[in-house]
Automatic annotation (TrEMBL):
It is found in: Secreted, Cell wall. Residues 1-23 form the signal peptide. This is Exopolygalacturonase-like isoform X3. It comes from the Eukaryota.
Length: 404
């Protein structure tokens, strides 16, 4: 009887321990539906509440957006948080038709962030693309982006999909040690200014195993960046993988260390390129940029340095670019060109490119404007391996039109 009575006496304590154990196992998950979120309704307030509590947790936490379709207005999720935090997106969040605001989902000042899940961020861009006026003026209307990462460090974005952003799909500002892995980016080829991933003022950024189909640069690497790695990315439709444009704004600074490798581009309006504005607003170096093991399938302008980049003639072409390009390599680039000029290296007249290496280029062109050729200006590259077409066999004509 003593054992039985002791067990009975301890039973409430044991039940409390089991209950606490279950509570602790679920304590790290902050499901937005527990904060009032419902499918087919706006979840902005619920997401903000879930994030606030998760961010305040002293143990690793997760904000969960479960399967379903939800509306979302501009959502600012800010740190710093007290521990590592994950935003797990399994449903679809849809933007409204509103063209005001910076973006749909803004993540700022967060360390050790994971954004994951099989869900979709849908910018509903079709409602806004007609309002884009960047083809009319140099300083143009800024439409909302799908996801913005400002001052995010030691973090990873994986598996999610960005669909039909009104502007850039992902924009990075002042991030460090941030990786994108197995991300999908999708928008029509005629959607304006929908860069897949734009990187600015950041360091140690890795973009890996990612599929991008959009209406502007699949990836654009702006100024003031260091140690950017782009690998195993498929691109198309789109405007290619670009460094730049550089030199448009007075606050831009040195860019150093960009590697693009093992990528495939299909049907894009440009391949791999470096672009700077003539009559640039500032002078700084851009160096240590390398493109290697790239496959081109019916790509226009597959290999391009364009220091006369001037879309819609919004600049003074007669004033050479002040951006100094050096230590550049294009190696093992193969496939088919949609234009007869497959390799074009046009550098600044006042700041010629230095240390440019071109090796093992094997591109073919089957159009009616042939034969395939390469044009150069203000550069003397070191050439080795296969040359198809012969590199720098012709001078580049001055003042040619720039594609966006």
């Amino acid at each position: 009887m003593g054992l039985i009575s002791n067990f009975v006496a301890l039973l409430p304590v044991l039940l409390l321990l089991v209950s606490n154990s279950k509570a602790q196992s679920a304590a790290g998950v902050f499901d937005i539906t527990k904060y009032g979120a419902k499918p087919n309704a706006d979840i902005t307030a619920a997401l903000a509440s879930a994030w606030k509590e998760a961010c305040a947790s002293t143990t690793p936490s997760k904000v969960l957006i479960p399967k379903g379709t939800y509306g979302l207005s501009q959502s600012n999720l800010k740190g710093p948080c007290k521990s590592s935090i994950e935003l797990q997106l399994e449903g679809t969040v849809q933007a409204s038709a509103d063209v005001k605001g910076d973006g749909l989902l803004l993540l700022e000042y967060v360390d050790q962030l994971t954004v994951s899940g099989t869900g979709v961020v849908d910018g509903q861009g079709k409602t806004a693309w007609g309002k884009n006026d960047c083809h009319l003026k140099k300083i143009c209307t800024k439409l909302p982006m799908n996801l913005k990462f400002n001052f995010v460090t030691n973090s990873i974005v994986k598996d999610i999909t960005s669909l039909d952003s009104k502007n850039y799909h992902f924009n990075l500002l002042a991030c460090k040690n941030l990786t994108f892995d197995h991300v999908t980016i999708t928008a029509p080829g005629n959607s304006p200014n929908t860069d897949g991933i734009h990187v600015g003022d950041s360091e140690q950024i890795n973009i890996l195993n990612t599929n991008i189909a959009t209406g502007d640069d699949c990836i654009s690497v702006g100024s003031s960046n260091k140690q950017i790695v782009i690998s195993d990315v498929t691109c198309g439709p789109g405007h290619g993988i670009s460094i730049g444009s550089l030199g448009k704004y007075t606050n831009e600074k040195e860019l150093v260390g960009v590697t693009v490798k093992k990528c495939k581009l299909t049907g894009t309006t440009n391949g791999v390129r470096i672009k700077t504005w003539p009559d640039s607003a500032v002078a700084f170096p851009a160096s240590d940029m390398h493109f290697e093991d790239i496959e081109m399938v019916n790509v226009s302008n597959p290999v391009l340095i364009d220091q006369e980049y001037c879309p819609w003639n919004q600049c003074n072409r007669k004033v050479p670019s002040k951006i100094k390009i050096s230590k550049v390599s294009f190696k093992n680039i193969r496939g088919t060109s949609a234009t007869p000029v497959a390799v074009k290296l046009v550098c600044s007249q006042s700041n010629p490119c230095e240390g440019v290496e071109v090796a093992d280029i094997d591109l073919t062109y089957s159009g009616s404007e042939g034969p395939i050729k390469s044009q150069c200006a203000n550069v003397k590259p070191v050439i080795s391996g296969k040359q198809n077409p012969p590199i720098c066999a012709e001078p580049a004509p001055a003042g040619g039109p720039s594609s966006d």
